Amino acid sequence: MAINPKFLFEVLLRSHVQANKIGAAAVDAYVMFTVAGKNSGIWTFDLRKKGAHDVLRGKVKDPGLHIMLDEGFLDTFIAGEFDAKKAIADNKLGIVGSEKVFKAFAGFLSGKSAAKLGATKAAAGLAAPKAGKPTRGAAKSDRGGRRASAQKAR
After folding, report:
1. Nearest to residue 88, comparing CAs of 127, 61, 57, 116?
2. What is the pTM of this model?
């Protein structure tokens, strides 16, 4: 049975964030999930040092990490039982953001420190993305929007 995204983010992962506020603050960023499908939605982890340390429904302007996936892929993603390159190539997964935030977030979810995760290139079955560059699976609007804002910043 597939997990309901609302239950996953608003109950299970919210409990994890609130029970681990010190680990949450170590991420020091917004982490946004966009889930497509029947129970689609956008959820944002506010894991900033002075943030709410909560999982909120909705999006933020500049998340440190944006993970896009299909609802049917959510169970596989949470279990970490997939090939990240294949998932990205098949457009089941898209990741945009900072490699540092990715490692810290993966460590937070798995209970490992970012330093321990730095020794490996994979966490929760995912290869860390290049900082600021969208993966092949990223939505077209994210590619263009992120690129345009990055070019303006230079």
Report:
1. 127
2. 0.71
